[in-house]
Amino acid sequence: MDADLVRVSKRLSAVLRHRPASVGLALDPQGWVDVDTLLVALAAHGTPVTRDALDAVVAGNDKRRFAVDTLDGRDRIRASQGHSVPVALGLPDRPPPPRLFHGTSAAAVPSILRAGLVKGRRHAVHLSVDVRTAHVVGARRSGRVALLVIDAAAMATAGHRFQCSANGVWLTAYVPPTFIHRLDAEAPRA
Fold first, then answer.
1. Are 80 and 165 in contact (CB under 8 A)?
2. If residue 147 lies in a helix (H) or strand (E), which one and from where to where?
3. What is the pLDDT of residues 37-47, one digit of tens each?
4. Is position 190 within any domain?
5. Which residue among 22, 55, 86, 130 has its CA within the 20 to 30 Å range from the CA of 79?
């Protein structure tokens, strides 16, 4: 993705996940907003984006951060997950794979092993289905990457609920420390 599309993607993430009011928008309860309304709002607040550029960002994002849907003949868009504003994504509970993974900074591990993984300001804790993805996520943090293995099967048996977003990210409200183990294997090579 070229630099202009990366800039648009970051702006869309900020607006659709965290600050819709920054461009005068309100998301519906499931996080959707009309595409045309979004484009007008972005332009009015200094970030003109064409529909072609928006479509390129949605199609070209390797993490599929955004979903586009049509309702009553109008296109709408939302972030797939990662919201810090209240939304009800409407994702059904699903049985998770036996193990899931979480990438973070090595400095955060002692706290996580004491308190568990908490959602913080986000809608849910985000978990990856594979080590490589978890490593990429963890690498966004400063410092050395640490990889954690989550015993998702045991969590589900204990009554914890899981959902899977449109882009394959597994979501749960909280991961207690008893279900978390540090992965000591070498990080995957890119």
1. yes
2. strand 145-151
3. 999 999 999 99
4. no
5. 130
